Amino acid sequence: MKPGRFTYHDPTTIDELTGLLASLEDVKFLAGGQSLMPMLNMRFTQPDHLVDLNGIDGLAGIALNGAALEIGAMTRQATLMKSGEIAEHLPVMQAALHWVGHFQTRYRGTIGGSLCHLDPSAELPLIALLCDAELTVVGPEGERSVAMGDWPLAYMMPNLSEQEILKLISITPWGGHHGFAFEEISRRRGDFAIVGVGCQLAVENGSITKAAIAIGGADQVPYRLSEAEAALIGQPASEETFAAAGEVARQKDAMSDAYITAAYRQRLANVLTKRTLAAAAQRATGE
Amino acid sequence: MSEQLKDTRDITVTVNGKSYQEAVETRLHLADFLRLQLKLTGTHLGCEHGVCGACTILVDGEAVRSCLMLAVQANGREVTTIEGLADGEELSPIQEAFSEHHALQCGFCTSGMIMSLTAFIEENPGADEAAIREAISGNICRCTGYQSIVAAGVAVAAKQAGGS
User: Fold this and answer.
1) SS3 A138
2) Which of A48, A127, B78, B153 shows the smallest number of beta carbons within 10 Å?
3) Do B63 and A104 touch (CB under 8 A)?
């Protein structure tokens, strides 16, 4: 037995949860457990209370509401990978999910857990950022909405108070024909990405009309390559154009750690930006 | 720790077809529950943080890391461990293939490998070699090497595809 002592709670409704949260201190929320359980086992975290979200009704599921895809925070990664709705409307998410851990961890791991854990190299926060997701959080004060761009406050710190949980992820997929791509480099299959890049691109008559690029793993939080996105509009979908975008990615700040230097992360950001843009352009133009 | 301070729950869980009613401390993870409380020591623990795959079991038919679930979360669920695969003396197809292809040496990773492949091939009959390699990318072996394990997986996947 490795985790430290805690009191376990397993509410079955949001109301029960919020009532509980008003009275507890030093709480951790257990979603899929694929990050929190290791931290508990190694006693990196020793909360007084563990609130299990797995039994709460209505937190999981995928539904199309008008143009928006609404994904419950407790939806498992394996469910997202197999979903026909995601395949049809948000294929870039499935492209990224192949890189999330292993099939055994994806049966438990959830999209909400990944967004709240907010590991800088995690694929799902990157995709949520790429797709301008709107997040709904709920706590004792009721619900509020947070744009994914305002979600990461700092390294592994989401825009969430200790008494709130993430409830819903809403994404309005791009209309019209467009291309997408996701690529990452990790040391071994299933490992944390060193750098990952996702992009979406719309091309008309050879010129780029819409572009989104998100980069994870390079810096403390995932970010959008906004300068390059703006510069891409009106440009031909060519190797030179993508090389210029890659150069923008290379010049962004990057983290350095015991294994990987900042310069290598910048180099990967450059190369993967070029590669994903080229792959997305190919899909967008049907070549 | 005094008994009073322990946070415990009563759970009912089916393991390999047999129903157990047990009181568990809520911080006990599922792998330790199987090993220490039910004495089913075929499930191995390597890293206890979800990386090595040795503790892989099936919960409601899905392959999961049993070190990354609490025992209390298995309440009402159906668990299958390596002990539940053979039918008496008759090995499961993957166990049989591991024997034929010499897919184990020390055996430490074997139960996790077999549980992973059991779930994966069930869901993906006819999986090719690349898919089998990816399926066991989350199971670490440090002595046999992966060639014979992959060979065993490929042989079973091909047979399942042919039979269905």
Assistant:
1) strand
2) A48
3) yes
What percentage of chain A reaches a pLDDT higher than 90? 94
Q: What backbone torsions phi and psi does residue B41 show, to the nearest 5 degrees?
A: -90, 10
Same domain flag for A100 and A191: no
End-to-end Cα, chain B, rounded Å:
55
Q: Domain B3-84: give its CATH superfamily.
A: Beta-grasp domain (3.10.20.30)
Output the CA torsion sign for B134, B135, B140, B144.
Answer: negative
Q: State how far the Cα of B55 lies from the Cα of B104, in Å rounded to an integer.
A: 16
pLDDT in tens, A20-57: 988 899 999 999 999 999 999 999 999 999 999 999 99
Angle at alpha carbon of residue A109, lines to B132 and B86, rounded to 5°: 45
**Cross-chain CB nearest to A38 (options B9, B27, B49):** B49
Same domain, A162 and A185: no
Which residues contact residue A253 at a Cβ distance below 8 angstroms, ignoring those fewer than 6 apart? A219, A262
Strand partners, A52: A30
By the CB < 8 Å criterion, does A187 face chain B? no
Distance CA B164, CA B153 (A): 17
Segments making up each domain of chain B, as ranges? 3-84, 93-163
Q: Is 0.90 exceeded by the ipTM?
A: yes
- Whole-angstrom Cα Rg for chain A: 19
Write out pLDDT tens, residues B66-105: 999 999 999 999 999 999 999 999 999 999 999 999 999 9
What is the value of pTM for the model shown? 0.95
Residues A83 and A138 in one domain: yes
Q: Give the range among A19-23, A34-38, A217-221, B14-18 with minimum mean pLDDT.
A: A19-23
Any chain B CB within 8 A of the CB of A8?
A: yes
